[in-house]
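Q: I have 155 residues here and want to know how they pack in 3D. Can you give me a structure?
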Amino acid sequence: MAGGNEGELLTRAAHERLVAELAELEGPKRQEAVEAIATARAHGDLSENFEYHAAKNEQGLLEARIRVLRHRLHNASIVDEKAAAASGVVTVGSRVELEREDGERLEVEITGHGGVSADSPVGRALLGKAPGDEIVVDAPRGRWRARVVSVGRAS
């Protein structure tokens, strides 16, 4: 992702998880927040009512998360996983085995939800790479090098 205006790339499974989370927040969780506020309001004086202020704060956090999810889903694109797998290079949804220059092997999954972000130092270094390619990762704890051992698709 070159600029900051493009939406994120998501696998179909990651997209479905975000849609399910949004549905839960907009339905049952939002109703729970409304009920908690109503219950706390019934306890009397709102100026010193801790439960009321806590419930209003929770509602604010809930609404903020809903806005974030709506924005992500509105701007997201779903990766064509068959085309990505056929390309043989690292894309969102790839599971990549690396061998660091110190001999340590690690496996990472490039994803927008629950794995290594495509915008992270490791994600940026890996996107578009193929088995055998060398990468340099400029991480917060220092630069390190690795070789791409294999590229597959996450399950």
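Q: Anything worth noting?
A: The first helix runs from residue 12 to 41. Residues 88 and 130 are 6 Å apart (CA to CA).
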